[in-house]
Amino acid sequence: MTEPRLKTRIWVDAYLTRLRLNDIPAFVVAHGDDDAGAVLVKCATLDGQARAFARSFDLMTGDRTWTVLADGAEPEVDAAISRQRGFDPDLWVIEVEDRQGRHLLDEPGLD
């Protein structure tokens, strides 16, 4: 029996709330499918650098983890995100802006 999945819109709203409570600015730059869209999180450090994260599925353990999709100059990270949007129009993109690079994806409850 498969475990029910949380609707993407609910996860996004909860994530944005968690960021806001930690005084980390974030906004949705691409609104994907509310029910089952995948999510990319871009963390811009406001110095021309950024990192994009995508959720992946570990076939061996069944765990969901956040992995780095792209890392480096912000225009290069943006280009990688644009390519992903070209493959998946239902994709959500959330941009986090934090000089310290905080994105909170490594905290419990966001996997």
Give the SSE layout.
Elements: H1 8-21, E1 26-30, E2 39-44, E3 49-57, E4 64-73, H2 74-87, E5 92-97
Output the structural class.
Answer: alpha+beta
Q: What pattern of helices and strands is seen along the backbone?
A: HEEEEHE
Proportion of helical residues: 25-40%
Q: Just name the CATH architecture of the domain at 26-97.
A: 3-Layer(aba) Sandwich
Structure summary, number of beta strands: 5
Query: Which CATH class of the domain at 26-97 is shown?
Result: Alpha Beta
**Strands across the major sheet, in which order?**
1-5-2-3-4
Report how far the terminal alpha carbons are from each other: 20 Å
Radius of gyration: 14 Å
Give the overall silhouette: globular
Q: Which percent band covers the strand fraction?
A: 25-35%
Poorly predicted ranges (pLDDT <50, ≥5 residues)? none
CATH superfamily of the domain at 26-97: Protein of unknown function (DUF1491)
CATH topology of the domain at 26-97: hypothetical protein tt1805
Mean pLDDT: 91
Number of helices: 2
Major sheet, described briefly?
Answer: 5 strands, mixed
